[in-house]
Known about the structure:
Blueprint: H1 11-22, H2 37-40, H3 50-62, E1 67-74, E2 77-87, E3 92-93, E4 100-101, H4 105-119, H5 135-138, H6 150-154, H7 167-175, H8 183-187, H9 210-223, H10 227-239, E5 245-246, E6 261-262, E7 271-272, E8 287-289, H11 291-303, H12 310-316, E9 323-324, E10 327-329, E11 334-336, E12 348-354, E13 359-365, E14 370-376, H13 386-402
Antiparallel strand pairs: 1-2, 1-14, 2-3, 4-8, 5-8, 6-7, 9-10, 10-11, 11-12, 12-13, 13-14
Amino acid sequence: MxxxxxxxxxxxxxxxxxxxxxxxxxxxxxxxxxxxxxxKVIIYKTNPKSTIYQSIIDKYVKLxxxxxxxxxxxxxxxxxxxxxxxxxxxxxxxxPCHISKxxxxxxxxxxxxxxxLQEKGILSLDDPISKYISKDILDKISNGNExxxxxxxxxxxxxxxxxIDDPGFxxxxxxxxxxKWNADDLLKFLYxxxxxxxxNPAENSGYSNxxxxxxxxxxxxxxxxxxxxxxxxxxIDVLGLKDTYYFWHDPLPSQKVAQGYxxxxxxxxxxxxxxxxxxxxxGYGGMYSTVWDMYLFIDALFVKKTLLTQESLDEMLVFHPxxxxxxxxxxxxxxxxxxxxxxxxxxxxxxxxRDLSYSADLFYFPEHHATMSLIVNYGxxxxxxxxxxxxxxxxxxxxxxxxx
Length: 404
């Protein structure tokens, strides 16, 4: 997701809402101490750099991140570990089996589901989006009447305005933090707004969450099924992901979800914003998972290659040449970490996840046969002092992965 710019003029309103949450029933239960196999079995600590990885996440928790879970797998074995707190108020330590919101990693998974629909002949990435979305809707969206294809939405070359940039959307989140949004609710923040850039996919690209709300609508039009059902049919159930849930369509499990935090007022205090919903369940975010289930997904995709054909993988891995915040944009996939070493061999394929009070990274380093699955229960897209701390941590982990 894009950066959040919550305005301090709403401080009183937010404190009232936060106080209300503290004494009312909510959708997401507080976590408990778990009987976690990933902590007990020695195979999950066989990576020779396990001590280094643990020291890194411990260091960054001491620097202020509330909780971190990390999985690294390469030819030498696994490291799976955690540090910090899953629930600060209740004193529940973070464990590798705790579930967390993985934010825009949802886009990566939705994109794979769409590639599988293409393989089945249900749709094509080169279909015009007008085949699935009504003219009445497209007429109200800047660039909506350009020759947009599904591919342009998947690889962020549409130029369509980003819902998450809209101040009116933030105001509604503040007024209704637990609202379960649907696509129609979100589209009104997109209508009659200037395009982010002129449609010219060979030259222009730019990340927009709106693309993936439109993609969720396309899935439903093409399959005549809820797109949440397609997410289950095309990867959650296929891979047997027992700790992956698409909120709000799926109920979240009791006592397993880590609380999410954010330094809302830039005053050093972490506020629990677990219940705040920034449009989850509409294609661009809403998946909750564990580092293990994320690993199973990316391992099936890039290592075992059981989710997609090589032809589909080749399509996903076509990246736009324009650098966007230290990465290249592909079809529901990033080419990331392109500046931490040799760009010809130290890059990684996958996706970042950033939401209001959660962050995640899921990447495969093909030249190093290594996977990084990372969860932090803090929102790192807003401009707070902990955002650079998170970025330093992810880079430090990646540098250890690519080191000899």
